[in-house]
Amino acid sequence: MSRGFFVTFEGLDGSGKSTQLRKLAQWLEAQGRRVTVTRQPGGTRIGDRIRALLLDSRTEDVAPSTELGLMFSDRAQGIAEIIRPALDQGNVVLCDRYTDSSEAYQGGGRELGSEVVLQLHAALCQNLQPDLTFLLLADFERSLERARNRNARNSRSGQDENRFEREDEPFYRRVYDKYRDIAAREPLRVVAIEGDIGIDEIHEHIVKVMKTRLHLE
Q1: Model's pTM, two decimal places?
Q2: pLDDT at 156 (0 to 100)
Q3: Structural domains in the chain?
């Protein structure tokens, strides 16, 4: 059995990445492909507990290096429990966030730098790289506004994952700029989709890329 295909989705909260991941999963299943969907942080029993700690706005005074360590603890568990077994079975794995998020948010936003993130990835994740990454770079201000509005709605419904949304604009500018750095550094892996274009138009572009990468045309 051939190894599966590993796809990650990246971008600021509010960029539409989770919506596009769901649409791609539905399209792949309609093509008869076996699909495994997961997310980071979260996706496993241990990961969901780490996610709750990291994203809850009541979590305070977390050192940037502690935050990074928790992200990689979650990631290592997700790889061992979900991603590698699914790839070994030949599945297409779709993951909402991966190491690029740590490089952008902790490396860029928290100003820890890229080197420590990439070193941890090599050591704890056996340097498992995605075959393809879709980076959604929607308009910066609109993405941030959508994310904060969404999390305000979630808070009213009792779901609190607002810790990062409390950060200031310079933090998110550093995240956004680091994502651009990653895309420039790895143009073969990272497909950047820029601007506030329609959901269906983005999906069509993603499907076109997937057909090429999976040799479906």
Answers
A1: 0.92
A2: 55
A3: 5-213 (3.40.50.300)
Write down the residue that tokens 């860029």 correspond to: 108
- Of the candidates 30, 134, 37, the one whose C-alpha atom is nearest the C-alpha of residue 86 is 37
Q: Are 131 and 164 contacting, i.e. CB atoms less than 8 angstroms apart?
A: no
- Beta-carbon count within 10 A of 10 CB: 26
Terminal C-alpha separation, the chain: 22
The predicted-structure confidence for 107-148, as pLDDT tens digits, reads as follows 999 999 999 999 999 999 999 999 999 999 988 888 777 767
Residues 3 and 6: their CA atoms lie apart, in Å, by 9
Answer yes or no: is pLDDT of 171 > 90: yes
E strand or H helix at 121: helix 114-124
Going by the DSSP 8-state scheme, the letter that residue 164 receives in this structure is G
